[in-house]
């Protein structure tokens, strides 16, 4: 019965299966399913054929080994932590035979093989060896054996070198040596020489390489941070990652940014334009209700100052509270009335007919001027003003200026005021069309407005 089991698959059949796998015609599992056997056994055939050639497909029977050899084999497995696959490959013994030896050894210890050691066995293996040694080997077998011997020699030299330098587990040492020799020899040959299972090698290789769980995410985070010139914090980067199809919790993004050393700039205080009451004061219609249900329903405006190398520059923008879009803006080198009037004129040209608009500002002297107020009345725009000394009444503009200065003024170096002027215009275009916001569901102001139409 045991003989029938041993001869279940002929050497020709095994060789046919091995060659089809080596050529890529089928996988280990598909071949195993066709033969109704284990894919681990098929993998062993391939490794034995790679190491020993055709003769490696013929496993030795249990009766070919003495009790002394069986006991030494079990001790070898125990001391070196070898698997059944590795032992089978080293000694061309069937895994089922090794499993039976192992079970006997675990149950009875060394005494399990004492009877065989006393009784002795006929030297069948020696006779078969002498017969085989007389048979001439083919050129293919000689070349393969020569390659194996060279690989084994190089492998042993590398292992001895590692042992003399540092202490580490045998499995890790073998993995390191195999990695170094892979450019020179086939992996299957090196695994056979080392007696290491393929799965064990890949496991330790992964540990040695130290694959970063968030390696790809870190790279994308750094790219987003760089593309936006350091203006994005962890929340906005988490939104941009989601837009790119990468779902990552904002707390994880914050930790990864800390690891990468990426941090947004701190905001600073803005310029104040209040000079006391110089004209009519409008009521506070907005009353800090900065939410709008549609575009061109609520606008806010203000003036801010930039100081660069002793030269001052002034910006007057108008922001739509519906989506935070900059409707219009003007830039000058003096805070004149024309700065504000030019901004209003440009914005009113974009105002749809019949729009019921509220335009909110602080009590700056430009907004108390009759020319400014007259323009609003002519277009049917309701003027709203913050209370005196209450910056939170115009918090939307305060927020925009804080973002602008932290993401542009404090983040970059400028060669001249003209250079800053150019960068400021580019930033406002970026702010409107590319810079995403959490409250806009990860969209830029223009994208959000377009989707709402």
General description of the model:
- The structure is a single chain.
- Helix 17 packs parallel to helix 19 (370-378).
- The model is unreliable at 1-6 and 116-133 (pLDDT under 50).
- It is rod-shaped, with a radius of gyration of 40 Å.
- It has 4 domains: 2-134, no CATH class; 139-209, no CATH class; 215-260; 298-452, Ribonuclease H-like superfamily/Ribonuclease H (Nucleotidyltransferase, domain 5).
- The protein is built from 22 helices and 6 strands.
- Helices cover 55% and strands 8% of the residues.
- Strands 1, 2, 3, 4, 5 and 6 form a 6-stranded mixed β-sheet that branches.
- With 453 residues, the chain is an alpha/beta fold.
- The longest helix is centred in the middle third of the chain and has 27 residues, at 139-165.
């Amino acid at each position: 019965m045991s003989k029938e089991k041993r001869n279940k698959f002929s050497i020709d059949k095994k060789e046919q299966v091995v060659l089809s796998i080596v050529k890529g015609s089928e996988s280990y599992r598909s071949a195993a399913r066709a033969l109704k056997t284990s894919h681990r056994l098929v993998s062993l055939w391939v490794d034995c054929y790679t190491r020993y050639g055709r003769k490696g497909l013929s496993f030795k029977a249990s009766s070919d080994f003495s009790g002394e050899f069986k006991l030494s084999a079990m001790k070898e497995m125990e001391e070196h932590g070898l698997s059944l696959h590795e032992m089978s490959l080293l000694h061309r013994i069937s895994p089922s035979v090794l499993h039976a030896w192992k079970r006997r050894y675990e149950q009875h210890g060394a005494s399990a093989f004492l009877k065989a050691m006393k009784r002795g066995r006929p030297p069948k293996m020696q006779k078969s060896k002498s017969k085989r040694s007389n048979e001439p080997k083919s050129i293919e077998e000689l070349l393969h054996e020569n390659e194996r011997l060279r690989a084994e020699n190089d492998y042993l030299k590398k292992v001895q070198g590692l042992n003399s330098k540092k202490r580490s587990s045998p499995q890790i040492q073998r993995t390191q040596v195999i990695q170094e020799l892979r450019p020179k020899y086939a992996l299957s040959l090196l695994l056979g020489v080392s007696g290491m299972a393929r799965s064990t090698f890949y496991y330790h290789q992964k540990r040695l390489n130290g694959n970063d769980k968030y390696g790809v995410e870190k790279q994308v985070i750094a790219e987003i941070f760089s593309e936006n010139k350091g203006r994005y914090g962890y929340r906005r980067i988490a939104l941009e990652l989601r837009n790119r199809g990468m779902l990552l919790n904002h707390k994880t993004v914050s930790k990864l940014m800390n690891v990468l050393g990426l941090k947004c700039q701190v905001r600073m205080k803005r310029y104040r334009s209040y000079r006391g009451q110089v004209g009519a004061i409008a009521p506070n219609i907005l009353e800090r209700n900065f939410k709008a249900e549609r575009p061109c329903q609520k606008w806010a405006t203000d003036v801010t100052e930039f100081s660069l190398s002793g030269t001052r520059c002034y910006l007057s923008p108008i922001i739509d509270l519906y989506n935070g879009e900059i409707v219009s803006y003007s830039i000058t080198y003096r805070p004149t009335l024309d700065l504000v009037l030019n901004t209003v004129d440009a914005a009113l040209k974009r105002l749809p007919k019949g729009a019921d608009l509220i335009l909110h500002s602080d009590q700056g002297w430009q907004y108390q001027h009759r020319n400014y107020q007259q323009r609003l009345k002519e277009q049917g725009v309701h003027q709203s003003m913050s209370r005196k000394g209450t910056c939170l009444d115009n918090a939307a503009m305060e927020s925009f200026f804080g973002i602008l200065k932290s993401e542009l003024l404090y983040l970059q170096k400028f060669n001249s005021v003209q250079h800053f002027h150019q960068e400021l215009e580019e930033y406002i275009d970026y702010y409107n069309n590319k810079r995403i916001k959490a409250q806009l569901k990860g969209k830029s102001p223009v994208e959000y407005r377009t989707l709402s139409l």
